[in-house]
Design a protein that fits this description.
By secondary structure, the protein is mainly α. It contains five helices and no strands. It has one domain: Rhodopsin 7-helix transmembrane proteins (Rhopdopsin 7-helix transmembrane proteins), CATH 1.20.1070.10. About 75% of the residues lie in helices and about 0% in strands. It comes from Clytia hemisphaerica.
């Protein structure tokens, strides 16, 4: 369920990047490519961050709920969590398109507040959670190993 981290990047960002570097004369095409590149880059980046959060949370639950993990973390719940968080990322990555008309070349206009919010809540906090989770997992696994050796 959590497996596709790099596929969206390869399918969407790289073609937009290649188009951005090509010699296109149409202003409308250039605007579409500019917006498409920025949007696809942001959604795949933040989506990857959220996927790492999901994987870290899954591993934490696997250690904390060793005996009841399969009852709590079902395939259905994992799919719901994944779809919910990707929807969250999609909605947040659409915010820079509001208002839809912009005087700039690219309509994808990132406000400073949006950028700060995204970096803090969708990159920094998930990575702190993952680091703390894996520290906890390491401690628990060491405890289990010491109990089995004793």
């Amino acid at each position: 369920v959590y497996g596709w981290r790099d596929e969206p990047y390869g399918c969407f960002v790289i073609p937009f990047y290649a188009a951005k570097k090509s010699k296109i004369d149409s202003i409308e095409s250039k605007k579409f490519i500019c917006d498409g590149f920025r949007f696809s880059y942001m959604i795949t980046f933040y989506g990857a961050c959220i996927n790492v959060l999901l994987i870290g949370g899954d591993r934490l639950l696997a250690i904390r709920l060793m005996t009841s993990y399969k009852l709590v973390v079902t395939r259905r719940r994992a799919i719901i969590a994944t779809i919910s968080l990707w929807t969250y990322v999609l909605v947040l990555c659409l915010i820079p398109f509001v208002p839809p008309e912009s005087e700039k070349f690219c309509r994808y206009n990132q406000q400073d507040e949006w950028t700060t919010f995204m970096l803090f809540f969708n990159t920094l906090l998930p990575y702190i959670f993952v680091i703390v989770s894996y520290m906890y997992i390491t401690v628990k696994l060491d405890e289990i190993q010491q109990k089995t050796q004793a």
